[in-house]
Each structure stands twice: as C-alpha cells, then as structure tokens.
Design brief:
The complex is a heterodimer of chains A (133) and B (558).
Chain A lengths: L7 E5 L8 H12 L3 E4 L6 H10 L4 E6 L4 H14 L6 E6 L3 H9 L4 E3 L5 H11 L3
Chain B lengths: L3 H22 L31 H5 L22 E2 L2 E2 L4 H13 L5 E3 L3 H5 L22 H7 L9 E4 L5 H14 L8 E4 L4 H7 L6 H18 L3 E2 L1 E4 L1 H5 L4 H21 L4 H4 L3 E7 L3 H22 L5 H4 L3 E5 L11 H15 L4 E3 L12 H17 L13 H24 L2 H6 L2 H18 L27 H16 L2 H16 L4 H10 L4 H12 L9
Parallel strand pairs in B: 1-10, 2-3, 3-4, 4-5, 5-6, 7-8, 8-9, 9-10
Classes of the chains: A alpha/beta (133), B alpha/beta (558).
C-alpha cells in the first residue's frame, strides 16, 4: 500500500462481553500510530462484524473477547468472511484466550492473538508488517 | 488538633529538615523526580502534623459507628466479627455451580456470590441466537425458576446471605430467589443478600444494559420500594465503582462516579415518593481494591465520610443507617498478570489487606489464574485462604481502623474527598449522572485514565513485576478450567421440556398482566414475581418489558 493511505482498522467486540477497556486502549493506540480506527461498540454478531468490515472497507479487524466465547465467535467471523470471498483483511484477536485455544484460532485464519499484557506498540508494528493491501 | 505554638515550632523544624535533605539530594537523588499516585495526587516525601493541622477530629474522623463513619460503620468492627468472605462464583450449569457453592461453604466461606452468564445478564434465554457461544461461560445460565431451584438446592436460604451480580434483570432474579425461599418455607423478611441492580454503571463501563436509562431507573426504584417494604434485610442495590475502576478510572474517579450514581438513585427514589430513611439503609456499595496500598485505604475512608455528609446534608437523612456506606470489595482483576501468574497471589493478598484496613463489610479475593481463565478449585481455595490468613493471623483485626491518625493516611483521605467533590460538582452541573453518561463524559474520563495507565506501563514509568520487568521465559499454561459447550445443549433441552410441561395459560396471563403494569406505573416487582412463579422464562419476561420500554443501543463513538 502507498504510504499516503492510512491503514483502516475495525475494532470490535463480538458477542455479549462488556469488557471494552482493552479494545478501546488498542483503538486509541492504533490511532496514535497513524491508523484510522472504526469502533463498533459492544454486542456485535459475527455477521454484523463482517458487514461493517466490508462496508467500511477496512484493512484490519481487531476483535476482543474476555467472556470465553472466542472459541465460537472468532471462527464464525472467519467463516463468514470466507463465504463472502473476503481474503485481504488481516484479522487479529485478543482478550482472555487460553494458550490451548490459540492454535485452533490461527488455523482458521486469525493472524495473531494478543493476550493480557500485550504492548500496544507491538500490535501496531505487527499490523504494519502484515497488512495485506 | 494542635496548639498554635506547637505548629509554629514544627513548621520551623520541618523547613530546617527539608533544607538538609535538599542538600543531600544532589549526591543521593531519589528514585523518581516526582511521586504521584494513580489519582494524580502528588505524594510528599514526608507527612507531619502540619498536613493535618486543620483536621477536626470530631466532624471529619470521629468514632467508629458514628457519623461521619470515617473509621468504620460498626463500633467494634472486626473485633466483633470478620467481614463476610464471599467469593464470586458460578459457571456452566446450575448443578455445577451448586456444587461449587457447597465446596466454598465447606471451606469456611460465609456468604454466596452468584455469577450469571452473559445471556442471563442481558435477558436472553439459552436458546436465543445472541446466546450462541456464551451460555455458562462467565457464570451460571438461568432460564427459569427451575434453574434457580437447582442452584440453591440443599442450601438453607435463612442461614446464608446471597449476593447476585445482576443488573438489568435484577427484579427477575430477586423474584426467583423470593419464590424458592417460599418453597423452602422461608418468608421474604428473613432473606439476607444483595442484588447489584446498579444500571447506571452498566452504560458507562460494564455493558450489560437492556432497556434505555429512563425505564431502567423506574425498575430500580420499583425494586427499592418493594424491598424496603417486603425484604427489609435485603440490600436492594449495590452501587458499584468496581467496574468503572476495572475499566480504567482512578481511585478519586471511582469514589466520585460511584457516589454521583448513588445521588442519582436517591433522587430518583425521592421523586417516586419514597422516604429517604425508608430506603437509605438498604443501599449498599461495591468498590475495588487496587494496587496503591495507602491510596486504597484512604479511598475507603473518604468514601464513607463523603457519602455520610451527602445523605445528611444534601438529602436530610435522619437515620444514621441511611448515612452509612456499607460496602463489598473485590481485588483488582486488571492488576493480575498472565505472566508468572503465581505472583498474583501476592498482589491479591496486599490488595485484600488494604480493603480490610479500609473497613470493608465483605470481600472477594481474586484467584491467581483469572488473567487466564475462570479459576480452578485449587486457586479459589488459595484466594479464600488469603482472607482467612489476614483475618486470623495478622492481628490487623484486633483494633478498629488502625491506620487512622497516620499523617499520610489522614491527609490522603482528605485529598481524595476534596478531589472527588470537584468531580461530583461537575457532574451535578451537567444535570446528574444519567446526563453525564449520555454525554459520554464518564466514559471519556475512564477511557483517558485507562490509556494513560497503559502508556505508563509501556514506557516503564509504572513497573509491573513479570510484565515489564523481571520477565522470564514462560511455558504454555495448561490444565485451565474450561466450560463444556454441552452446557448450552442441555439448557436448550431443558427449556423445550419446560415449555411443553408448564401451564401455558398461566404464563400468558401473568405476562399480559406484567405488560399492562409496565405500560402504567404499578410497581413491577409483584407482577414479575407472579410471572416467575408461573415458570415464565427470563427471556420471555425481558421480551415483554422490551416491547414496552424499548432497547438501549450503545453509541459507538470512541
């Protein structure tokens, strides 16, 4: 991508979880890092997330879940993206994700999982290095 | 407090000492240029009587059990009995949670605290599309009275006190509790416990709202009114700073935003025609105990003093019980690290100690593995043992409010009071908490503080052991508690069975009556009680209320 276009990020909370401290901190940090961030607010269904991502023409989706529903919701988002033929969006996950679940999430196409204690500068760097367009 | 002459001498000596120290600093500088606590209050090198020379002992500190309750709400505090040791627990099915409660009670826990899963908290039955993947995950799934019957099976409700973290559907869960107590032959006036029922902080920080603010406030006041007449020993609300603190706000903001919400509930209840001394004593509070030890102790003392003056001076309460801030405390989940999780045991212990020195009425200690998953039985046991060690071994419970009179703690207590008052005034000027939340003011304050805290960690201005200093290579963590997805399938089966077996006419009739009540201004509690007794589901009851009240949608702006 050209250096003049800013990376567009959809920051979102899938499911019913209300813990939004993490996603909001990350959203602010990514804005500080020069990205454009669209935050969806709470309680997004996988369908709504994919629709918002397409409509907003984002390069990245970052989603956060601390309720333990990541094992259902994250793969569902990937499944719907695939159904819609979207392949050029970088998808990241975060929240309380047990180590044991990470492999399965990555195998369905989530590029990286950032758990508690992650450095927001590392997340911004990862996005800049891995964004697909 | 001090003679003028003494103060003059002290002033001079203090200046002399400061100059001496100043000269030595060139050679031996301090660790940091300035020391500041999480609330942004600058911390001085030394506190002396000079910092408290204007303190009026009787009006600001006083005696325990006496206005303004700075030293505690009971005269003997923990010499009489310890705080209630209450671990927030619940997951998967009602059977499994019932087993965990019995385990905790056998281990010496003195009260139950029920965690509900998110669909229950947001008014969806387990078979709703929005509930997919969430059933039984962060708490127990409750669809109908049947589940509550199982949840408390074999637990005598006149012997335990039960706290339920439930907000938007608080009326429904309270009704279910009253209904099963009735089955056990226990009348409502014997029931002891708490429902959180604090909807305002759901909009600003916790997120489990259902209805818009206005009808939600009506439900809150209906509950306050019902409880003061029918369930007098029940805490009808737990006005919570915990979640705002966890979402990132500072200690001062926690006190200010919590009490500002408290003010809004009192105003709403007064407007509904209730007497301040009828519901005042049933208000309870819930705070966080965070990492800065003295700031936390001072915070609890400040909150007690400030609420007492608000109830007395602003709302003309006459009953001292209306002026007492009785509160539950939980250690700060956001300070736990996923790195070297065993270190969390120490963090929790120190935080718990600050809550005890701050005079809490009940306490939840987090488990060391909570940055990773729901706690295992072993880690919950360590957390509970931490409280028991503080209560039985440290000697800190042998005298009341042992940190009173500390030049530092008294000065900090006053600072927190004064700074919180500034926030409360600002919120008053906006028209109160609901308006401040609507404008996004509270959310913005919380978010800014959270971002600042994160930046401090990343720039290593704030050291978190094991995270940004003293790190080690870590192995993958295994053996964590995981909720079986079969829980959702079983809940859905049970729902089907219930709906085919119950008296459908009775359900319809009770829901129709509820709808009519919601459209008018009858108290909703008796109507909801009828519906739950007819085995209407939580989702069905919420759907009826949604039809009348509508649903709240969160603004998505950052």
């Amino acid at each position: 991508m050209g250096s003049e276009t800013r990376i567009r990020v959809l920051a979102t909370k899938p499911g019913l979880d209300g813990h939004d401290r993490g996603i909001k901190v990350i959203a602010s940090a990514l804005m500080d890092a020069g990205m454009e961030v669209i935050y969806t607010g709470l309680r997004q269904t996988p369908q709504q997330i994919v629709e918002a991502a397409i409509q907003e023409d984002v390069d990245v989706i970052t989603m956060s879940s601390l309720s333990g529903a990541h094992d259902y919701l994250f793969p569902k988002v990937m499944e719907i993206l695939k159904e819609k033929g979207v392949e050029d969006i970088l998808v990241l996950g975060g929240g309380i994700i047990p180590d044991d679940d990470i492999e399965a999430l990555k195998s369905c196409g989530i590029a990286e999982i950032f758990g508690p204690g992650s450095d927001t500068r590392e997340i911004a760097k990862f996005i800049k290095e891995n964004v697909k367009r | 407090m001090y003679e003028e002459q003494e103060i003059e001498i002290l002033k001079k000596e203090n200046e002399r000492w400061s100059e001496e120290v100043q000269q030595k600093l060139a050679k031996r500088p301090e660790r940091k240029k300035e020391f500041v606590n999480t609330s942004g209050i600058p911390i001085k090198r030394l506190y002396t009587p000079l910092d408290n020379k204007e303190m009026d002992y009787f009006s600001e500190v006083g005696f325990p059990g006496k206005y303004p309750f700075t030293r505690g709400v009971q005269p003997t505090m923990y010499r009489g009995r310890h705080w209630t040791m209450r671990q927030y627990a619940g997951f998967a099915s009602a059977e499994e949670s019932n087993r965990r409660y019995k385990f905790l009670l056998e281990q010496g826990q003195t009260g139950i605290s029920v965690a509900f899963d998110l669909p229950t908290q947001i008014g969806y039955d387990s078979d709703h599309e929005m509930a997919m993947g969430e059933v039984g995950k962060v708490g127990v799934a409750i669809d109908s009275l049947l589940d509550v019957e199982t949840l408390f099976d074999g637990i005598p409700l006149d012997k335990v006190s039960t706290s339920m973290t439930i907000n938007a559907p608080a009326a429904i869960l309270l009704a279910m509790y009253i209904a099963i107590a009735e089955q056990q032959g226990i009348s409502p006036e014997k029931l002891r416990g708490t429902i959180q029922n604090d909807i305002l902080k759901e909009y600003s920080s916790r997120g489990t709202y259902i209805f818009p603010p206005k009808p939600s406030m009506r439900i809150v006041t209906d509950i306050l009114s019902f409880c003061s007449g029918n369930v007098p020993q029940w805490n009808s609300i737990s006005i919570s700073g915990y979640h705002m603190r966890e979402a990132g706000c500072t200690a001062v903001q926690e006190v200010a935003f919590t009490l500002a919400n408290g003010i809004s509930y009192v105003e709403a209840a007064l407007k509904a025609g209730l007497d301040v001394d009828a519901f005042g004593p049933t208000l309870s509070f819930f705070f966080c105990c965070h990492q800065d030890f003295f700031e936390e102790v001072a915070k609890f003392r400040a909150a007690r003093r400030l609420w007492a003056t608000i109830m007395k001076e602003r709302f003309n309460a006459k009953n001292p019980r209306s002026m007492m801030i009785r509160f539950h405390t939980q250690t700060a989940g956001c300070t736990l690290t996923a790195q070297q999780p065993k270190n969390n045991i120490m963090r929790v212990a120190f935080q718990a100690l600050s809550a005890v020195l701050g005079g809490t009425q009940s306490l939840h200690t987090n488990s060391m593995d909570e940055a990773l998953c729901l706690p295992t039985e072993e880690s919950v046991q360590i957390a509970l043992r931490t409280q028991q060690v503080i209560g039985h071994e440290l000697g800190v419970t042998d005298t009341v409010d042992p940190l009173a009179g500390s030049y530092y703690v008294e000065s900090l207590t006053r600072d927190i009071c004064e700074r919180a008052k500034v926030y409360i005034k600002k919120i008053d000027e906006m028209g109160g908490s609901p308006e401040a939340i609507e404008k996004g003011y509270i959310q913005k304050e919380i978010q800014d503080s959270a971002f600042k805290y994160q930046r401090e960690i990343e720039e290593e201005d704030r050291i978190v052991v094991g995270l940004n200093r003293f790190q080690v290579e870590e192995e993958k963590v295994t053996g964590l508690l995981k909720v079986n997805p079969a829980v959702q399938i079983a809940q859905i089966e049970n729902l089907k069975k219930l709906k085919s077996e119950r008296d459908g006419n009775k359900v319809d009739k009770s829901l129709a009556a509820l709808k009519k009540g919601a459209q008018g201004d009858d108290n909703l509690m008796p109507l909801i009680l009828e519906s739950v007794k007819a085995y209407a589901t939580l989702g069905e009851i919420c759907d009826v209320l949604k039809e009348v009240f509508g649903e709240y949608g969160q603004p998505s702006a950052l």
